[in-house]
Amino acid sequence: MGTVSHDAINQFKALMDQVEEPLKRAYQNVHQGYHAETLARFLKAREWNLIKAHKMLVDCLHWRVQNEIDNILTKPIIPADLYRAVRDSQLIGMSGYSREGLPVFAHGVGLSTFDKASVHYYVQSHIQINEYRDRIVLPTASKKYGRPITTCVKVLDMTGLKLSALNQIKLMTIISTIDDMNYPEKTNTYYIVNAPYIFSACWKVVKPLLQERTRKKVQVLSGNGRDELLKIMDAASLPHFCKREGSGSSRHSEYANENCFSLDHPFHQQLYNYIKQQSLVSEPTQPIKQGSVHVDLPEPAAEGTEIVKTIESEMHKFENGNGLSGSLDGLKINDNSDYRTTHCP
């Protein structure tokens, strides 16, 4: 980190020292004691423009206060079968750590259907995983390895990616915009595995639209990426869809506790139990409330909108050019979902 970077961070810190409650309290949950690393993340996200980075961070803190994000880890999604349905349709989990101590998060992009609950439950669950990562997982890793660990690596499984993914693109854009605006630069590297042709076609046109720092983070691996990923993590930390020899994947592993997407996996058990315990601590005499947490859903930035339009255009082009609409369909949102109609506020 050069002199300019240090100067920018010091100036940024001086500005943040001036914020008042409740923003100051919200900022403590963001930085977790790692001021320089947090300020550097927001500066990177705004190309080291101090004024823009400061506005971004203050906007993030206002978002946290207005939506009570600091309390979101006290709001379990109940009943448990609803949470299991969310986990089975929003495929994300933590499989272990890289050799450098960075948490490894796996995302089943191609097989996520987002069809078992309302948008608000999926957004709530995503933010809870972010907050648990930032407040529990990363500080614990930092203590274990004796140095600040403030980022993670992500392995994105494209198995099952189809044209019907367009049905989920709005929700996925909302979630990615929340991350871009409020959790910037939390991912060190994105590893893409099990990429079908349709991904390759989209990636070719989307890649030039991404900022250079983002492009550099993305690595598209051959097959299930097992051999390449073993260079940075032990076999035990591989996501379940990368453990088999050769390419290919599946939604379920032979053993439930090996499938890092499953509620039965140790990570999700720890996360869910933590949230339930925190709910009892915050309101020990009150029954746990049902219903989703409603968070203000952001409008995507211009860059994000352009990328979405490009993906949609390319996928429609692929559909029209190959005549695969019918055979590749099958992940449409089910508007008659029981949870959507009976459990959602």
UniProtKB/TrEMBL annotation:
SUPFAM superfamilies noted in UniProt: CRAL/TRIO domain, CRAL/TRIO N-terminal domain
What InterPro entries does its record include? CRAL-TRIO_dom (IPR001251), CRAL-TRIO_dom_sf (IPR036865), CRAL/TRIO_N_dom (IPR011074), CRAL/TRIO_N_dom_sf (IPR036273)
Low complexity composition-biased segments:
321-331
Question: What PROSITE patterns is this protein classified in?
Answer: CRAL_TRIO
Q: Which SMART domains match?
A: CRAL_TRIO_N, SEC14
The CRAL-TRIO domain is annotated at 79-239
Fetch the CDD domains from UniProt. SEC14
Composition-biased stretches, type Basic and acidic residues, lie in 335-345
- Please give the residue ranges the record annotates as the region Disordered: 321-345
Query: Which chain regions cross the lipid bilayer?
Result: none
Q: What is this protein called?
A: CRAL-TRIO domain-containing protein
Upper taxonomic lineage: Eukaryota, Viridiplantae, Streptophyta, Embryophyta, Tracheophyta
